[in-house]
């Protein structure tokens, strides 16, 4: 099962997957890449662009003795079925987010990974966002003390999301796709949600998306806001918004607080506020501007220009360029990745390297099935809370990942 080079089939040949094919092809643990899509023309376009072979159906992928891994880039609400079938067929799985659209499917994926010993990795880009990496680093260093409260969000207008205009899918409940927000804040404080309460904004545009009878879920909420009680005693607020927040960055931690310090972010400024330990009985604090450490290096180079804030708000410099906080992590990437595409705050290369190394060596990846469940399930439970007018609901937990 392990110490074998990977033969990977990409399932779904849309706009997102094409950013990952060259990385998978270039990784030293990968032998070959195939592509598969229900729309033949899409698969043919990939075959021509990347020089890969086509497999006509997913059933053929599952039956193949040569293919030992899949990269799932299908529609979000199909992930559970696609992943479960792959694991049952003995394939390692890299999957785009979210883990699955139901709690039961998330639990089944965890069960299958535990039973088979196969590698599963959920490709949560925001785990490697500079703000999340900085908050993990600062929290581990004790700068926050005990975690008390934090807030994270994914502001992405529905008109700018790929599924936004697809019939039936455009009105998907925002918290079915929660992991960009949950992945940042939960990873930062190393905890998980035990209870949620959620409210939503009922869309009033009448555009045929967030309306009953117009989407697969009869969902009317275009924005959802959830408070999560965490196992470590703190509280987190997560916002998933689809009809506001056109400005960038779309995903970020806006605040993280503890008994000793706090982190705050707005547009391009990241600050750390810490209690002065030399004066424990006084309300004194010192502030450190960590913007140059957390912002992408290309952004830092332009910070003195008059239109800097406007360019930041419009998403410039937030795709390929590393931030200083990511530099140490970047040292472990294979040399074969140099010059290849990267995106989503330079997270793609980290994710593909994580998967390939885990699937080759058998080492548990950071974004394993147990972690993926903890990032996904709170959102699914919160959807039910929202439907019930904000009733507090318990969040089932799959436990910690087994140690390597």
Explained architecture:
- With 404 residues, the protein is of the alpha/beta class.
- The chain has a domain at 126-315: 2-Layer Sandwich (Dihydrodipicolinate Reductase, domain 2), CATH 3.30.360.
- The chain has 13 helices and 15 strands.
- The chain has helices at 21-26, 40-50, 58-63, 79-88, 103-116, 130-140, 179-189, 291-294, 297-301, 308-313, 327-330, 348-361, 369-387; strands at 6-11, 30-36, 53-54, 69-72, 92-95, 120-122, 147-155, 193-202, 221-230, 235-241, 251-258, 261-266, 269-275, 285-289, 393-394.
- Strands 14-13-12-11-7-10-9-8-15 form a nine-stranded mixed sheet. It has a six-stranded parallel sheet with strand order 3-2-1-4-5-6, sandwiched between helices.
- Helix 2 links the parallel strand 2 (30-36) and strand 3.
- Helix 6 (130-140) packs parallel to helix 7.
- The longest helix is centred in the C-terminal third of the chain and has 19 residues, at 369-387.
- It is globular.
- The two termini are 15 Å apart.
- The model has no long low-confidence stretch (mean pLDDT 95).
Provide a brief overview of the structure.
This protein is α/β, with parallel strands linked by helices and 404 residues long.
């Amino acid at each position: 099962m392990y110490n074998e080079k990977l033969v990977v089939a990409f399932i779904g040949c849309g706009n997102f997957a094409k950013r990952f094919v060259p990385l998978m092809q270039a990784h030293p643990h990968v032998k070959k890449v195939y592509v598969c899509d229900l729309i033949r023309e899409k698969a043919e376009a990939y075959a021509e662009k990347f020089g890969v072979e086509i497999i006509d159906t997913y059933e053929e992928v599952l039956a193949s003795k040569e293919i030992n891994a899949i990269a799932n880039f299908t529609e979000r609400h199909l992930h559970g079925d696609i992943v479960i079938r792959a694991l049952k067929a003995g394939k390692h799985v890299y999957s785009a987010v979210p883990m699955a659209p139901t709690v039961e499917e998330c639990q089944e994926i965890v069960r299958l990974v535990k039973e088979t010993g196969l590698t599963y990795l959920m490709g949560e880009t925001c785990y490697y966002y500079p703000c999340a990496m900085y908050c993990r680093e600062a929290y581990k260093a004790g700068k926050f003390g005990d975690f008390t409260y934090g807030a994270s969000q994914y502001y992405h207008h529905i008109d700018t999301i790929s599924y936004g205009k697809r019939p039936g899918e455009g009105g998907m409940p925002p918290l079915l796709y929660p992991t960009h927000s949950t992945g940042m804040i939960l990873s930062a404080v190393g905890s998980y949600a035990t209870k949620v309460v959620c409210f939503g904004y009922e869309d009033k545009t009448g555009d045929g998306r967030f309306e009953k009878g117009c989407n697969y879920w009869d969902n009317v909420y275009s924005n959802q806001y959830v408070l999560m009680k965490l196992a470590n005693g703190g509280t987190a607020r997560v916002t998933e918004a689809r009809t506001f927040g056109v400005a960038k960055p779309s995903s970020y931690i806006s605040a993280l607080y503890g008994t000793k310090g706090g982190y705050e972010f707005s547009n391009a400024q990241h600050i750390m506020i810490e209690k002065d330990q030399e004066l424990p009985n006084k309300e004194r604090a010192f502030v450190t501007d960590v913007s140059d450490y957390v912002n992408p290096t290309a952004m830092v180079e332009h910070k003195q220009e008059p239109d800097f804030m406007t360019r930041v708000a419009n998403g410039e410099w937030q795709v390929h360029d590393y931030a200083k906080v990511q530099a140490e992590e970047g040292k472990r990437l294979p040399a074969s990745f140099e010059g290849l595409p990267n995106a989503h705050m330079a997270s793609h290369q980290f994710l593909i390297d994580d998967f390939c190394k885990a699937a080759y060596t058998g080492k548990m990846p950071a974004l394993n099935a147990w972690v993926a469940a903890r990032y996904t399930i709170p959102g699914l439970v919160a959807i039910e809370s929202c439907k019930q007018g904000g009733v507090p609901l318990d969040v089932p937990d799959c436990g910690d990942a087994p140690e390597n």
